[in-house]
Amino acid sequence: MSVLVLVLAGPLQAWGLAARWAHRPTEPQPTKSGVIGLLGAACGLDRADTAGLARLAALTYAVRTDQPGHRLRDFHTTHSRTGKAMPLSNRFYLADAVFTAALAGPTPVMNRLHQALRSPVHPLFLGRRSCPPARPVAHSLHHDTDDPVTVLEHLVSWQAAGWFQQSHPGHRMTIHHDTHPTDPAARLANDHPLDFTPGRRRHAPRATATRALAAPQPADRDRDGGPDFFDALDDLT
């Protein structure tokens, strides 16, 4: 077994659970469905391939909030190709957020996913097509472990932007992770993907729990996952 670590950072992210017509909210952290969709895009998985999706959805999932960002509302207007006005909508995003996600599964599967993220079949995005990542998504691969929570807690350091670490030295990261339904702390999230076929998407509930971590040290930042191209803006402030 191995654990694959991803860094999800960008100017905008959007991780929806329950979009309703003109109201499209976002969760405060990446959903399992959204991250599995990102992996599927990297692998070139067909949207109607429910068997392939099931293999990805079977991976154990955890995500850490390194930089929570802030919620942004877009009052969205659009027109059809003929110029006809389409319904107005409110779309919500997370701005300037950074998350570290980890997935555990069989080593051959994780090796293939790691390679796919480094050379994806389809473009990768953070929940919506308008949200490209600001850093390479693939961070690291940890062998001989099946616990993504332990990896996020002890083996992967704080991935927040430098300016955030300097201005929030006491920030306490949280980890949202899969757990057993009998866990007294379990909460249900309806983001276990069953089918991505357009027009008939289906999800199932999964049991999740939350763990708060001690405040990290700013000097412990690990940038092996690649450069944050937006860090250059720090020099202009």
Automatic annotation (TrEMBL):
Locate the region Disordered. Answer: 177-237
In its keyword annotation, does this UniProt entry include Endoplasmic reticulum?
Answer: no
Q: Name one Pfam family in it.
A: Cas_Cas5d
Q: Which domain of life is it from?
A: Bacteria
- Entry's InterPro entries? CRISPR-assoc_prot_Cas5, CRISPR-assoc_prot_Cas5_N, CRISPR-assoc_prot_CasD
Going by the UniProt record, its keywords in alphabetical order are: Antiviral defense
Bias-annotated ranges (Low complexity): 206-218
Is Transcription a UniProt keyword of this protein? no
- Which segments of the protein form a coiled coil according to its record? none
What protein does this entry describe?
A: Type I-E CRISPR-associated protein Cas5/CasD
**Phylogenetic classification of the source organism:** Bacteria, Bacillati, Actinomycetota, Actinomycetes, Kitasatosporales
* Gene of this entry: cas5e
